[in-house]
UniProtKB/TrEMBL annotation:
The keyword Membrane applies. Signal peptide: none annotated. It is found in: Cell membrane; Membrane. One of its GO terms (cellular component) is plasma membrane. Residues 107-122 have a biased composition (Basic and acidic residues). This is Anoctamin.
Length: 1054
């Protein structure tokens, strides 16, 4: 890097490599990284001065603010040391956070070959022995560990996690059962033999176990040696930590306000004020820290995770990486590499069998029973990360503590870690929504007795008789009977409804924008920034179906030639078939809902045929009809769930999707669309259709000869609220119970099936214990996401009808996180880590739900609630609601009533019904003028509401960028530091190996030639070695660059 490089000026005036830890509602606190040996100025003297400043080890122990002015390169040293405080994790609640303890300066000394560099690496924890519980005498008896020791501690403390030699780790286990007929055929033995031979040919090491007391269970333990790890880390383009152990120190971010404050503090009077203010702030911060220490993760149990710069692994540049670290290749990385190999090795020697590969096929045909990586220890035995997570994260008693997301990610992988990060963030965002919803309901409850329409219903002097709600069996009834119902309706149907609906639309927009911002932070933290789905290797099933396709195309990302899917012959037919079948299933689900509605109407009509004294049929037809219809609906939902899952997987497989991420996204979208219709169809019916097209007494609109269901006076909003409460709260409770019980049931079944009820043997081996657990599967997270996204739909789409939805969702999610964590640790086998950079198609689904919620809430307020009728009546009645209830009722002559009640004691001639009708000549009725004014007002409200909310959402999306400026600058700065480090390391190696190269050619050169070559600069020497320096190419033509062969270890040398 030259001193006069103008491209560096705008990048280096301030430390840009920062890791902010911020709450979405609090100011940002940034972490500058000071780099040694980096020239920051165009002026040579300034550059030297800066280098001396940055390499001074004593000054690096203090927090300095560099205030660059103009471009002169001067800096001002702050007078007081910046306090090291751990800021609250941004965008996380008391339920979730990741630990980022940035408490030390970054030291990027590039002299990695020196003793100082080795000592520095040891200080960073890169070379520490993996001992989980060292001496605790100076820490009040609490165990002390570092991040690396916790990750690897389980293997060292559990002999069953290694081969019989006690050295090689068990990275994967295959199991087959001699008790299964399919597993003992000659074909199965041959397939296993070929498959295992291919694994060993790939470099994997196998060890077989067949304990006699386990009833014919055979275990094949797999270990990935160093050579395999090196090869496949490069193939999979894994980002691995570099040798440079960066130590970061936290510091307040320098800005113009801080600079002005420092200048003003020079005045004595202002300095006294500042000192008093700082003293008060210090006490407030200390009090806040004491409160937050109750909910933060215990740093002794989950020690700080050292910030490490990473790069894509390459064997040719292996000298850049800290391969000597105990946790360089973690168990998660090792199991992922082995899984990659298992999915692609063949088990048949017949070249014509394109699909004879992969452990999945062998498990499906019972050649093997299971394939899984191992948990790193027992739940109740200290010394493993599983035990630590079980006691400190999965416990319900820790439900108000932060989540150690870094450790969750290290144990389960990025995909599961990102799920818990999203769940924690979503739960955090529910807190303000719950508070506002509770305030709205409390306000409504406090004003319910001052609501004029409700009081009119309850205190109506005249006994208003309402027309029957059904044919034959429904009696005339008093309006006063709905007193309690009208007051409960007011809790959800008042002026706060509009405010809360607008607030929740704003909340939904903020939630998605802040999640994108937080997700960018997490993906950068977990080394997934810039991860492209096209960097994933093709699915083996995808390649198998295209084995005979001769046409190839270049993958512009990976640079490899891959089979090209024929559009007309394969792609288009599969897409059309998938779309058609999904559309047919959606129509089938809608037809089921329509069938249930028709059943309810026809059952009431058919009751006239049974004129007996059966109380169940004649006295309570509506209750009986509702109960049986709900049962029928539940049965169809359960049946369709199973059918949808099977058909969706089959259709997605036919679509020829290249990567596993694309496959999962397409499958998720199909299943959610079908489940959306399943769960929400009945709610949409109540919200927008029930009671809207029933007609009037004497002229009811009948469907297949049956009278439609009507809403009670005041509309169907109360029924909608009850339906939402039952479905949301009830199904959440049922899903939680089933979700927690089913894994235990399956685990119990596995124990009985594999070990036997009478002769169960408790084996101490971890590979036996894990076999008894439930397989996580490829769709293990789908039910979890589906449950939460369906809940998100209840919270947003119909929130105008049920303001308490966010509150109940918050209560559910507080337990859901810990119960999910406990389930993953106790009931499921350890899943193979998967690499993703976001939550996939679920974000697009959430975004679509947010936009749909604006439409639904607008129509619910306008057409389902009584907000607009009350507003229009107030406007036309001088702002008063007097006689509003009477205004909403119309009268009807019962002498012309169709299908009057069979038994009645009512002897009047008129009954009332909700509606805006008036009597005309000839027994004709027509809508009043108020009805048409009301229609116009409702449509106008929908237009205004949706445009206002849409404008607010646009402003929110514009105001909140997807990535913070600090993160963007940090990514750029890290890329620059990494590139500089690589260049410096490569140059240092070249210079170190130059004398040997020159010595070999010295005998053939004259003295003047030797002196000329010896004085070459680094860049001139490199050009000469490659014959590209025009002036000295003739001198250096005998210098040869030697590189080792592929089968010869060691770095390239000159």
């Amino acid at each position: 890097m030259s001193d006069g490089d103008p491209s560096l000026e705008e990048d280096v005036p301030k430390p840009l490599l920062e890791r902010p830890e911020e709450n979405v509602f609090t100011p940002k606190i940034a972490t500058p990284i000071y780099t040694a040996g980096v020239k920051l100025h165009h002026n040579r003297s300034d550059a030297i001065e800066t280098e001396l400043f940055l390499t001074d080890s004593q000054r690096n122990d203090l927090a300095f603010q560099e205030l660059f002015q103009g471009g002169d390169g001067e800096y001002i040293e702050t007078e007081r040391e910046t306090e090291e405080k751990m800021a609250d994790m941004h965008a996380m609640s008391v339920l979730s956070t990741y630990q980022d303890n940035l408490s030390q300066d970054l030291n990027t000394d590039r002299d990695n070959g020196s003793e100082a560099s080795t000592r520095e690496a040891e200080e960073c924890g890169c070379g520490e022995p993996a001992i989980l519980y060292p001496d605790t005498s100076n820490n009040n008896g609490k165990p002390v560990a570092n991040h690396c020791s916790i990750v690897m501690g389980g293997i060292l403390n559990n002999p069953s996690l290694t081969f019989n030699d006690g050295v090689r780790s068990v990275d994967f286990v295959l199991v087959w059962e001699a008790g299964k007929e399919d597993a003992t055929t000659s074909e199965a033995f041959q397939q296993r033999k070929i498959f295992e031979q291919n694994l060993e040919a790939e470099g994997l090491q196998l060890e077989r176990e067949a304990p006699e007391d386990l009833h014919g269970l055979h275990f094949v333990k797999i270990h990935a040696p160093l050579g395999v790890l090196r090869d496949y880390s490069e193939i999979l383009k894994l980002r691995m930590p570099m040798k440079d152990c960066s130590k970061i120190r936290k510091s307040g971010r320098t800005n113009a306000i801080l600079n002005a404050a420092m200048y003003m503090s020079k005045f004595t009077a202002l300095k006294d004020v500042q000192e008093k203010t700082n003293s008060v702030l210090d006490r407030m911060e200390a009090c806040w820290d004491r409160i937050m220490s109750k909910i933060r993760v215990d740093p002794q149990m989950f020690p700080e995770r050292k910030h490490r710069l990473t790069a894509i692994y390459s064997k040719d540049k292996e000298y850049l990486f800290d391969t000597g670290s105990d946790c360089f290749w973690t168990p998660s990385i090792r199991s992922r590499i082995v899984q990659f190999i298992l999915d692609r090795k063949r088990f048949s020697e017949l070249p014509s069998d394109d699909f004879a590969f992969g452990i999945g096929r062998l498990i499906s045909n019972n050649t093997y029973s299971a394939a899984y990586p191992l948990h790193d220890g027992n739940l109740k035995t200290p010394g493993s990360m599983r035990h630590l997570l079980y006691t400190e994260w999965a416990s319900v008693s820790k439900c108000l503590k932060y989540q150690p997301l870094d450790y969750v990610k290290d144990y389960f992988g990025v995909k599961i870690g990102l799920y818990f990060a999203w769940l924690g963030f979503y739960t955090h965002m529910l807190i303000p929504a719950s508070i506002v919803g509770l305030i709205c309901v409390i306000y409504s409850a406090s004003t319910v007795y001052s609501n004029k329409p409700s009081e009119d219903v309850c205190n109506y002097v005249s006994k208003v008789k309402m027309c029957p709600l059904c044919d034959y069996f429904c009696e005339y009834w008093d309006l006063r009977d709905t007193c309690l119902q009208s007051r409960i309706t007011y809790l959800f149907d008042n002026n706060t409804t509009v405010f809360f609906a607008i607030f929740m639309s704003f909340w939904a927009a903020c939630f998605l924008e802040l999640w994108k911002r937080y997700s960018a932070e997490m993906t950068h933290r977990w080394d997934l920034t810039g991860f492209d789905v096209y960097e994933e290797h093709p699915r083996p099933q995808y390649l198998a179906r295209l084995a005979h396709v001769k046409r190839r195309q270049l993958n512009v990302v990976t640079g490899e030639r891959e089979p090209m899917v024929p559009f007309w012959r394969m792609r288009l037919p599969a897409t059309l078939m998938s779309f058609s079948v999904v559309a047919l299933l959606v129509l089938l689900a809608l037809a089921t809902v329509l069938g249930v509605v028709l059943y309810r109407m026809s059952l009431l009509g058919a009751s006239i045929l049974r004129r007996n004294d059966n109380v169940l049929i004649t006295s309570n037809p509506i209750m009986f009809t509702t109960a049986t219809a709900a049962c029928i609906n539940l049965v169809f939902i359960c049946i369709f769930n199973y059918v949808y899952q099977y058909l969706a997987e089959w259709l997605t497989e036919k679509e020829l999707l290249r990567t596993q991420t694309e496959f999962d996204d397409s499958l998720t979208l199909k299943i959610y669309l079908l489940q959306f219709v399943n769960y929400y169809a009945s709610i949409f019916y109540i919200a927008f259709f029930k009671g809207k097209f029933v007609g009037r007494p004497g002229d009811y609109v009948r469907l297949f000869g049956h009278r439609q269901e009507e809403c009670a006076p005041g509309g169907c909003l109360l029924e909608l609220s009850i339906q939402l409460a039952i479905i949301m709260i009830g199904k959440q409770f049922i899903n939680t119970v089933v979700e927690m019980m089913m894994p235990y049931v399956l685990k119990w079944w596995n124990i009985i099936r594999t070990i036997g009820r009478k002769n169960r043997i408790v084996s101490p081996m971890q590979w036996v214990k894990d076999f008894k657990l439930v397989d996580f599967g490829n769709m293990g997270l789908f039910p979890e996401y589906l449950e939460m996204v369906l809940q998100y739909g209840f919270v947003t789409i119909f929130v105008a009808a049920f303001p308490l939805a966010p509150f109940f969702a918050l209560l559910n999610n507080i337990l859901e996180m810990r119960l999910d964590a406990k389930k993953f640790l106790t009931c499921y086998r350890r899943p193979v880590p998967q690499r993703v950079n976001d939550i996939g198609v679920w974000y697009r689904i959430l975004d679509s739900i947010g936009k749909l919620s604006v439409i639904t809430n607008g129509f619910i307020i306008a057409f389902t609630s009584e907000f607009i009728p009350r507003l229009v009546y107030q406007y036309s009645n001088g702002g008063s609601l007097d006689q509003y209830v009477n205004h909403t009722l119309a009268d009807f002559n019962i002498t012309v009533l169709e299908h009057p009640p069979i038994k009645t004691q009512y002897n009047q001639t008129m009954c009332s019904y909700p509606g805006y009708w008036y009597y005309k000549e000839g027994d004709n009725y027509a809508h009043s003028n108020f009805y048409w004014h009301l229609i116009g007002a409702r449509l106008a409200f929908v237009v205004v509401f949706e445009n206002v909310v849409a404008l607010v959402m646009i402003i929110v999306r514009w105001a909140i960028p997807d990535m913070s400026t600090e993160l963007r600058d940090r990514i750029r700065r890290e890329a620059y530091v990494i590139n500089s480090f690589i260049l410096d390391e490569t140059r240092a190696r070249t210079l170190a190996e130059r004398p040997s190269a020159l010595a070999r050619s010295q005998d053939d050169r004259t003295g003047s030639d030797w002196n000329h070559i010896a004085t070459l600069s680094g860049s001139d020497f490199d050009l000469a070695a490659h014959g590209e320096h025009q002036n000295i190419a003739d001198i250096a033509k005998h210098v040869v660059v030697h590189t080792p062969r592929e089968d010869q270890p060691g770095p390239a040398h000159v």
